[in-house]
Amino acid sequence: MRWLAYRVPRKNKPDLFYVPYEPFTFLEAAGRSYIHEARKDDRFEVQLLAPKIEDVDTDFLKNQVKGGILDTIYRDEKFVNDMLMRLITRYIGMLEYFWVKYVIPAASLTWGIYYGFTAGTSFDVLFGAYLFKGREFFVNKIRKEVKEYHERVKRGIEWSFKDLDDVKQVEHQGLKRLKEIIENTEDKTEAYIKAMHACEELGLPELREFYAMSAPIQEQTIQEPHLGFALQNKPKESSKREFTRKSYSKGDLTKDPGMDLFDYKMSAKCLNKIKTFHGLDVEVKRTAKGMGAEEITLFTTPKGYDINAYEIGNPRAYEKILIKAGMHGREPAGPLAVLQMMKSFEKEGRCTDEVLSNSQIIFMPCDDPEGFTMRAWMAVDMEGHEEHWPPQERIVRYRDTNGVWGDGARSPRIIAIQDYIRKEIERPTLGYDLHETVGKFADLVYKGAGILSIEDFHIPEETRQRLESMYRRPEGKIARALSKIPFAIRRHLPFIGKEYAYHTLKKIPAFEVGEVMMRHVRERGLKTYRGEYQKLLEQPTPGLAPQLLTFDEGRAVDGPLLFDLEIRVCTAWLHDEFETLAYTTETFQNPLDERVLEHVAFVEGGIEKKLRLGKYAT
Amino acid sequence: MVEVLEVNAYVLPTIGSYSAYVDVDIDKHSKRYGKKTHGLRINVYSPEELDEGELARISNELKKEWGRYIIEREQARTFYRWFKILAPIEFLLLSGSITMDFLTITPPTSYLRAGWSIFFWGLILGFTGIIPGIRSFRDKRREDRAKQLLKNWKGTEFAKGADEEERKRVNECRNYFSRLDGRKVDIYKRLKNYSLEIGFKPARDFYEWKIKDLTEEESFFTKYLPASWRRKMKNFLFGVKVESPKVVAPVRSMDIDKGDRDEMVSVSSS
Rounded CA gap, B40 and B33, in Å? Predict the structure, then answer.
């Protein structure tokens, strides 16, 4: 058996032993331990990919590597165990379905007793009794077998790794090049960022995660433990912040009769090259000049990057459309989608002129420039201190910057953006905040899913409460069993199901906008959130109030979990403060160009519908 | 002396890094060579020579994918061992019921009774116990073959691919890729068609798989732990389809026009 590990170069520190951990590492480890067990003459060795072969003490290295592998494999043991158990027990549930175990046996026993065990009914009694009690014997046996298997797999991995025979160093040119990049770059953060973006081209995509997590490490300055919130005084009155504006004169537009509003032609190769905020900003600024936009600087980050907004169209128009993205640096499709939308205004499509005459569009491509470059998440503490990948993220002190909009906002950049919207836009009528759900563990669940729309429009309180009650996990066996009955029956029950929500919400006029946008995405040949993913969203989560309440294919509203935790996202704030029709979009693991275009199509559908353009003119 | 079998690996263009694709199907390979003790020689066809580290990754990927494949097969079936006992018992109960119907009741009532036994009890017992039991026997063969192959497979070695034609095709693919632009899936579709044109079957298979992987709306969760009742039932009855894995390892980008990499990753402040 052979296992692969990496000697990863670091800045001014010894190389790091690293085994990339993926959701399936456990399955792979199990497979290899099987091979090791089955082949009695097998030697277990680790191939350590390294920038160069070092002269080291073999036994010392071997012991370090052995410990490192075991620690890595068992780092997420609980998650892996839960996943493995869910996988291997998935059949048992089918044998114990409520209606097979209780309803049918009870009916057949009653039937048999009523007819006095005569003729064929004696077998009905027998079957009933068998399903009621006899099958339990087999189910228990299968359960035991599952437990044994689980133990065997776990122990097998442990034993096989303890048998480590040799560690063989192998030179990898990609790692050598990474080492050079890191050594030749003076600043540590910059060195790791360069290394991260070079990983894929060097054929080492699995190391990206390592450098993404390492890059912001220098900014993590908080040293004290924080087990509670800092007590704050009441927030001061809104700031007297002034925003600087810069106007660009409009360039010549080329007509594109094949285009409605946005351009769907895209180059995956070019998209792949925009890796840093600098790259994005250069493109955005070039485009802003071409389309004659007005640039407003909202905030300058501690590292000197400007967070800008770009306005085009008619400033006196009633319709003000806000399109923002890049709140989470780890979600690149949003900023790239905003760039694609802006680029479209360098051309003139069928609807461009009407849109620019009847509305003002405000683009905000990236709220977190450093995060975009580092592919890192940012969080904020209650004193307004922002950090990427905060080490104490799981402790109460830190919150997702997108979760604290409104009066409770602490993030200086969010406060600046809020000030700008309040003072300069005054009342956005349509708002978008573009997001993604991507990452190794998210891909396990959502890989291949299309765009999901989380909508903020006015829902009467009574209706919202009704919706919440539908998606709470039913208490009691009977209620749970009823919630699982087929759709054909369930749709006639007034207290359960997406269909009730759909028909109730359909009466609200704003409902139609979301419906049109999702249809628009599909008509463009792009994916929407549907099928099994939709069922997954509808499924009640055991022990938790739902985060989202779904009411139509690929569409949802914020659920009670967010209210319970007082999480207020950007679009919820827009709706509450300005009654904006606001949408948070989520795309999932698909090619980057597909994700970008899903956002683009969604926004295009909304603008056309809101301004009654094209096929939505009537 | 251990027999050495030859398989080919091709380094093919993909966006970002390139991919080394080993053209071997574990199901077919185990069927033909599973019983023999053998080693594998991978003939690598690449536009540029691969270094030792990259070759180690290919070999690792092969072991990883094949190892994982037997575990997935095992988990799709093993727990049915008790079904093997449960299935015949439930089948006997059902047959007994139908026989009794004919022995104790006279026609035409007996036909109605037997119909009831078949369509009601037959469906319940058959769908929950008997059919999965039959699957347990059916799937075992493939699993055993794969396990046998892994026992008899004695290591991997690499060699530079010697076939001139194959080497030419790999280079042609790279050249064609350098001229392409557009959306990712479209680029792969065109590469697939091009492979077909130049008679490069392994590349065609690779791109076909790549397109499927990028376009299908399916995740590990929706496949193995679906939420819908219909899908759960389907999985229970017919099992999860465990596909023979594609062995693909990322290698460095070999694009002809790489641009200025340092410029591309520059992060100097705006």
Answer: 11
